[in-house]
Amino acid sequence: xxxxxxxxxxxxxxxxxxxxxxxxxxxxxxxxxxxxxxxxxxxxxxxxxxxxxxxxxxxxxxxxxxxxxxxxxxxxxxxxxxxxxxxxxxxxxxxxxxxxxxxxxxxxxxxxxxxxxxxxxxxxxxxxxxxxxxxxxxxxxxxxxxxxxxxxxxxxxxxxxxxxxxxxxxxxxxxxxxxxxxxxxxxxxxxxxxxxxxxxxxxxxxxxxxxxxxxxxxxxxxxxxxxxxxxxxxxxxxxxxxxxxxxxxxxxxxxxxxxxxxxxxxxxxxxxxxxxxxxxxxxxxxxxxxxxxxxxxxxxxxxxxxxxxxxxxxxxxx
Length: 318
Ligand SMILES: O=P(O)(O)OC[C@H]1O[C@@H](O)[C@H](O)[C@@H](O)[C@@H]1O
Hints:
Blueprint: E1 20-23, E2 27-31, E3 37-41, E4 46-52, E5 55-56, E6 78-79, E7 107-117, E8 123-135, H1 141-146, E9 151-160, E10 163-172, E11 178-184, E12 187-189, E13 196-199, E14 205-208, E15 214-217, E16 222-224, E17 229-233, E18 242-246, E19 251-258, E20 262-267, H2 269-275, E21 288-302, E22 307-316
Antiparallel strand pairs: 1-2, 2-3, 3-4, 4-5, 6-11, 7-8, 8-9, 9-10, 10-22, 11-21, 12-21, 13-16, 13-18, 14-15, 14-17, 17-20, 18-19, 19-22, 20-21
Bound molecules: 6-O-phosphono-beta-D-glucopyranose.
């Protein structure tokens, strides 16, 4: 629904500065009249930039492939329908690591914006929403064969003055049930990883992928990242924000979720960063932390004709 044309409270026809949407061959960029912007590559519907008044909020590797030859290293790649290497005994077993959503070209479905009265009773644009779609028929032949289900994805990216929301709707348009996992693999931009803490994970169970996928319980109220970190925190209350803060407790990001009860915390650290051909510069692991909202520790089953929806809202530098 395009709400940008509704009559405004200050009179029909009053012209209000509208968000601009710039559509290029392979990117869509929306900018609010107040200056915040978001850029999405159609390849993977990957958000590659989110700018607020405080500058760029997402990390993007200097060697990220932006030509559709490889999943984009940075921003928010979308993981679907499998997280990590697919299990050999599952319907996803022939798919690549993290599935096909991040390596398929999506379609831009359109924009809508919402407005309301500001504190001084003047009308202002609050948000712009961009919708992207992917369906079975749009996949490469290889992916269609590897995962032969009739599905429809609608990925909505909403930009407001201080937040970015990403919501995925999954529809089963076929006659067979299917199972899936989803993850929003968000690379947050940070100045110095040694000064970053991740909060609200205390007492939560996690699987540590750097220690043979063993199970642990988080003991820290403010997790510091001091080495390679690859943990899947499970059974979280999505309404309790995961807060990324500085060591002196200044909030940098706050992430709330809907229907996404797992959160992956990932930093490759020095050696692994060096080993990734598309990660640059080598020491850029100091300038990023991935906090990835998802549902990955179990499979979601979607029955024929049903739909599922989940998402995240990231507030920046509160
Ligand atoms: O290199 P990729 O496929 O983008 O994956 C990056 C990382 O993604 C994280 O979500 C995984 O937990 C890690 O195990 C993985 O290394």
